[in-house]
Amino acid sequence: MANADANQATFPGAIRLFRFRGIDVFLHWSWAIIALIALRTRSEIYESPFWGGAEYLTLFAIVLLHEFGHALACRSVGGQANRILLWPLGGVAYVTPPRRPGAVLWSIAAGPLVNVALVPFTFGAAAVCHFYWADAPNDVLQYLEMVALINIVLLVFNMMPIYPLDGGQILQSILWYFIGFARSLGVAASIGLVGAVGIIVLAITWGNPWLIVLAIFGVSNSWRGLQHARALTKLLRQPRHSYLACPACHEPPPVGMPWGCRCGARFDPFATGGICPACGLLYAQIPCPFCNEVRPLDQWQTGDTIIARPIISRASPLDP
Fold it and tell me: Which structural domain, as residue segments, surrounds residue 130?
């Protein structure tokens, strides 16, 4: 899974495992609890505990390859990706692709494509063992079959159109081409909300608590996505500063947008040169209400527009 909205991700309770190609990989401590439960469960399937551990480590590797697919694809289109978190619900690649539907689509789709690329290898290994190694140990055949199944399950699960799973984000990116970012986010989040509620019903029917946890996670994130879409739609209807644009997403900022100052006052920084009229504090960097990127005030200028700025500046970003 990829998170395309986390530029400053922090991971309480996570430890840094290693760094590869400038990407830091973190492991949340709760992963160890799930590992112990999984190993105990797998010990009932294998004759030797070694293969239960090998299966779990392979799951770990497949999830990691999936997340690196997101991160490296994001970088290939000029985006930023430098953190991956492994936690009980799988993995999250924190990516910031350029604010274009094609760039976002490729960054998200690359993760599931890794699983697609692994299908012939995992199933091929299981088939070779089954048909051409007649005296293969049962544990070896069981391991290869489980690895092939795990890869398929991860692929199918991630492609479910439930926001923010990869399938939901892919759907949103495709719709972005036709109906814009805000409306596409609203549609994808609404579909995800319905799908997640449906999974909760199935999970309760099947008595699967783990699936219930995953579905609740989907409901929570889909609801936040829907609220965000509504807020963006409201912003898009407001008058804009026609000669200004966000350096990242190129959306003109709303006129009279009430950014918040530390003193509690709210004001339009583009109308005041970044200076709070209540306390006089100057904000040299302004967050975009559409993409959340924080950029220097003078980078918002386009055309002949000039934003008046005093010589003294501070680097404190506003609170949108």
Answer: 2-159
